[in-house]
């Protein structure tokens, strides 16, 4: 019986087709396998470069392009396009098998043949060719075939190679790209490592190559699986890896390792695959953890999609506070937590009673960032403690005053038998230290940039030091809380085991470039005594520029938001693919009410049920780690972004002021880089200074 496979590129296109078309595609292909002679539905393409290209009727207007095998019964759906475009697309393309990876490749032969004469002519005027330093034999060894080789030989400029990305065979383009970027033949070979195969490759056997290309082609086992695939195409798309990502996910490290990279470079995808890899090939239970409960829910969904084999070690997905509370509760029962307001009152009361010249916010931060972070437990140690990044200098007398306040605060917690998340975490770490064993063999941390030192010590205590113990994914450009951690200082050494991803797979080049403009000139640390860079960070997908719109009043802005969202829905975007972010809870709630009043389906971002059917609305903080086809960031207004209350006045403390401002910029950057295709940024009254500063 005929079986249907789907090209992953098609899944991405599928998500963008209009609803009635997607319904027809699902209908046609759900029946595809039932037809005894699948060939009956398929029409050959006249003048096709590749005789295996066929088309199939979707409706009067749309056709699917299907790769029909010479042998075997696996048919691959490559594209769905309007009638004429489908024929043109199919006519120009050739399918081949890569001689090194054994994977399937598709190229636009007409485009290659069409551009070669002109490139050759231009090259004759140039003194040097792009790949003059690489021998033909080496190119062939890396899987470059004769046609691509002839093309590569005519190139003189990396820009020409960039332009050829859409029409050269993918694996071969990657090889050329690596060589053009200065990698040696051996390094490119190592990059290919993950995709190499030890079986002998018959480059004529396309059917075998289809089966061998799981990162490119998904085989649906029966109509139910196919329908599930079509129902949630992005979910599946989300779990593919580029060879560079694969290398990191499957590597063996002698100790803690990490992966960095800007938003959308696939750090989470790598973390998920690493979890599966270690569960399958590692030596014990795996913990996959992150910062918030919302993110943990989305990681758990990702693990589910990866279909970890039943024989693998368990993968436990939990956020960090959940872990500390669990360890704590096993010994002491559930802790009574001090609320934020109670804590503020307590510090305020102590400051008043002791007549101290410090605000409650300053005392609370000094306790967290210096006393707890550095495990300071007496006045002498506090006198010596490093206070870098804390801004305001303190003399010995002032330090004695702060210490007195800390002492009273701690005594009060003990007397009331109440805890904060930080003290729970410290106690949990102490308890773990007393245990003879460690609960996990491998710990993987996503969104690492926002964890505090107490949480890092807990994670360190959850796993014994050794190969592949800790794997850390994070991006300090996306730090949105006040925690600045040096991994060395919490006993985690990643030097020599760090990788950086540079290709953004989520956001269009236009949205990315605009968002990066907001961070222009910011000095951002790398959690390891250096500075993080955004050099080489790029997106290969193009789209519309962000829409920036100012309004006179808050109500006018909300009204316009309803219009923007309606426009997206009318264009066929599903409600679950729309996200709205505001700096404050208040504005997020008002936006929710405005959309609900207009009859649109909405939900708070924190609510993960029915996420597919409703528009997610929440604070910028909640947007972290998520992604949507269309994003509206609202209320990007002067005095609201940055939020006045979250920024220490420069007159009070310049260092802290600058850190607060950077954090607020990063927060807006995080919200804007959640968008895959469309970004709308709006304000009422005067715009935020962060917007007016974008170059
Ligand atoms: N190799 C790839 N090919 C295609 N798409 C990819 C690839 N890797 C990642 N993606 C897609 O890019 C998007 C971003 O991936 P992911 O969430 O892992 O990035 P991230 O670096 O963790 O982002 P952020 O730091 O912004 O949260 C996802 O939709 C993912 O499916």
From TrEMBL:
It is an enzyme of class 5 (isomerase). It catalyses: ATP + H2O = ADP + phosphate + H(+); Couples ATP hydrolysis with the unwinding of duplex DNA by translocating in the 3'-5' direction. ATP binds at residues 261-268. GO terms for molecular function: 3'-5' DNA helicase activity; ATP binding; ATP hydrolysis activity; DNA binding. GO terms for cellular component: cytosol. Pfam families: UvrD-helicase, UvrD_C. InterPro entries: DNA_helicase_UvrD-like_C (IPR014017), DNA_helicase_UvrD/REP (IPR000212), P-loop_NTPase (IPR027417), UvrD-like_ATP-bd (IPR014016). Its EC number is 5.6.2.4. Keywords: ATP-binding, Helicase, Hydrolase, Isomerase, Nucleotide-binding. This is DNA 3'-5' helicase. It comes from Amycolatopsis rhizosphaerae.
